[in-house]
Amino acid sequence: KQEVTQIPAALSVPEGENLVLNCSFTDSAIYNLQWFRQDPGKGLTSLLLIQSSQREQTSGRLNASLDKSSGRSTLYIAASQPGDSATYLCASRNTGNQFYFGTGTSLTVIP
Amino acid sequence: NAGVTQTPKFRILKIGQSMTLQCTQDMNHNYMYWYRQDPGMGLKLIYYSVGAGITDKGEVPNGYNVSRSTTEDFPLRLELAAPSQTSVYFCASSAPINEQFFGPGTRLTVL
User: Fold this and answer.
1) Would you call B56 an interface residue with chain A, using a CB distance cutoff of 8 Å?
2) Is B96 on the interface with A (CB under 8 A)?
3) What is the full per-residue pLDDT of chain A (111 aa) written as tens digits?
4) A43/B43 touch (CB, cutoff 8 Å), yes or no
5) How many CB pairs lie under 8 A apart between chains A and B?
6) DSSP string spanning B19-83?
């Protein structure tokens, strides 16, 4: 069974810093990996999806990378802003339409 | 497009009662999913469907039932509610092997 881990559980940075969030998974036989943002009391918002054949995806200030062989994905956020404060979740899609989520990294960007 | 909608937003049940959580999507997605999110535990897949009339179990299906009679709707049924089913429930939809879109969630408390 896939295990998805996100470290650290919480992160606090000053506004303007570049930062990296980590996601690791135990089973490299994935179809894709998706990054989400979740605001308190809200649903999940899709940020980036990386297919298994891709190495990275970019959207604005966000860049996600995928290294299947090492079981890792990273989400890079450039020039962080207070509005980026949220919980960031990663999820792998494995065979049989099974999805496995990490427990998330809670990000606080301090003005 | 409304995306994925869920009703109700909140509900309190007594032990042993039953209820149906509603989920509707207007993106013509074949794939739909039900998750539960418990504090500190990440999201767990309960059931999913790859099209009308086709459903399958996820990681934590016990105590739940689903049906999929149309492309748009994917209700989740709780029979004989138990305190362990207190959670936030999310519905999601996607095209095959593509990003998932989530609804706003239903917060359920079983007393």
Assistant:
1) yes
2) no
3) 899 999 999 999 999 999 999 999 999 999 999 999 999 888 999 999 999 999 999 999 999 999 999 999 999 999 999 999 999 999 999 877 788 999 999 999 999
4) no
5) 55
6) EEEEEEESS--SEEEEEEEETTTEEEEEEEEEETTEEEE-S--TTEEE--SSSSB--EEE-S--G
